[in-house]
Amino acid sequence: MASPPSRPGTSCFHHTLTSSRITWRRAGVIRKEALFIEVVKDSLDAPLGGTLSDAIARLADSDDLRESLIAAARAWVAGIRSNPEILALRNVVARELHRFPELGEGWHDAGPERHHPAVAGALRQLVAQGRLDVPDIEVAVLQLYSLLVFPYLVFSAYGTDIDDGLTDRLITGGVDMFLGHYAPRHTEP
User: 106 with 158: CB under 8 angstroms?
Assistant: First the structure.
């Protein structure tokens, strides 16, 4: 006896329909994941804000390097503190790296100079002028970032904030520590 033709409600038709829905859902998820990755990468690669870019550009021409670096650091930290969306996005990325490892790989492959080219450029200028002694720009950029920005990333990951008084102490102490380490060492003949 021949089996009856497939019609809605039979298992064969239902299986095909269900498989098609799953395939389309997966395609939608993949598109959403790709979009998420691109949005995050664009945000992480975003250029520095105008105030910070201007402060960094003035470093090489400054008469008082410490005060100018403190002004640049304040602009950098203010940019982070005034943009909770970027902190939240960075926290999401940190939480989702297990699902989207290409985000971490992309940042690692690009290196800190790609994300902070203005800072790296300013440090190179200061080295060329003899105002700093920085043998490894990549390390120096990471150290400056760690001294000035990293505390806000850690605190925001736990849903807390750093008050203005501590912010000022972190900035001035961080700049003093950085300059103390990279001050030119003049040796007498």
Answer: no
Residue with the two structure tokens 């989207």: 100
User: What is the separation of C-alpha 36 from the centre of its chain, rounded to a whole number of angstroms?
Assistant: 15
Q: What angle do CA 114, 119, 125 make, to 5 degrees?
A: 115
The segments of the chain whose pLDDT lies below 50 read: 6-17, 20, 24, 45, 47
Instruction: Find all residues with CB under 8 Å of 124, minimum gap 6, and list them.
Output: 137
**pLDDT tens, 129-179?**
999 999 999 899 989 989 998 898 888 888 888 999 999 999 999 999 999
pTM for the full model?
0.68
3-class state of residue 102 by DSSP: helix
Q: What is the DSSP letter of 58?
A: T
Q: Which tokens sit at 2? A: 């021949």
Q: Considering only CA atoms, which of 168, 109, 120, 114 is closest in space to residue 143? A: 120
Report d(CA 129, CA 59) in Å as an integer: 11
Phi and psi at 173, nearest 5°, equal -65, -40
Which residue is listed with tokens 């190179």? 124
Please tell me whether residue 88 adopts helix, strand or coil conformation: helix
Count of CA atoms in the C-beta half-sphere (13 A) of 140: 23
